[in-house]
Design a protein that fits this description.
The chain is an alpha/beta fold. The protein has 5 helices and 11 strands; from the N terminus they run E-E-E-H-E-H-H-E-E-E-E-E-E-H-E-H. A hairpin with a 5-residue loop joins strand 2 (17-19) and strand 3 (25-27). The chain is globular. One of its GO terms (molecular function) is metal ion binding.
Length: 192
């Protein structure tokens, strides 16, 4: 079960996905709202926080979550404050009931990761791609359009046209033909 705890929040935040099941984890913590209460209203405990990347809107609530649930945060780069353990490119991690492969996908930010589960038919895309062909900003520090295009192409190699769900860092999750949205993002990033 995947729930977006930031749905309906009016403050500036990223989406925050609670993946419940055998290993309950939070994918990103968001910012500027009480995510701890939102988690507690759904599960008793968390096993870990998994980060797609460390932009402020995705990790603003990180300390509150790790303190409240006494959990560690996992991300790509442990030299960044708050990231306790590294997830290597193509490392497999358990989120909820399924195993996901972590894909290092720079371009929006150097430490960006996407997570894909073939068995669950789910992609956590972070800020790499969004619905309707949108893609992550490359005008911020560490942004790189060519790297972003390469990262989108790499994700396309891992996912298949039957992908059922794409959960993005902002905006609604895509549950109708998400593969097509990623493909469109690859085209749009080349044209921009």
């Amino acid at each position: 079960m995947i729930s977006n705890l930031a749905q309906g929040v009016q403050a500036f935040t990223s989406n925050v996905f609670l993946v419940s099941g055998d290993r309950p984890v939070l994918v990103d913590t968001g910012a500027n709202f009480d995510v701890v209460d939102a988690v507690r209203s759904r599960v008793d405990d968390l096993d870990a926080v998994i980060l797609t990347h460390t932009h402020r809107d995705h990790v603003g609530n990180l300390a509150a979550v790790t303190d409240a649930f006494d959990v560690d945060a996992w991300g790509y780069d442990t030299s960044i404050d708050g990231v306790d353990h590294a997830i290597a490119d193509e490392e497999r991690v358990q989120l909820g009931d399924h195993e996901y492969v972590a894909l290092h996908t720079p371009g929006h930010k150097n430490d960006h990761l996407c997570f894909h589960s073939e068995a669950a038919s789910v992609l956590f895309a972070g800020d790499l791609v969004f619905q309707n062909g949108s893609f992550g900003r490359t005008d911020l520090e560490e942004g790189d359009r060519e790297a972003l295009i390469e990262s989108i192409d790499r994700v396309l190699e891992w996912i298949d046209p039957g992908l059922e769900e794409m959960h993005t860092g902002h905006g609604p999750s895509v549950t109708t033909d998400p593969y097509d949205h990623v493909e469109l993002s690859a085209r749009m990033a080349r044209q921009a």
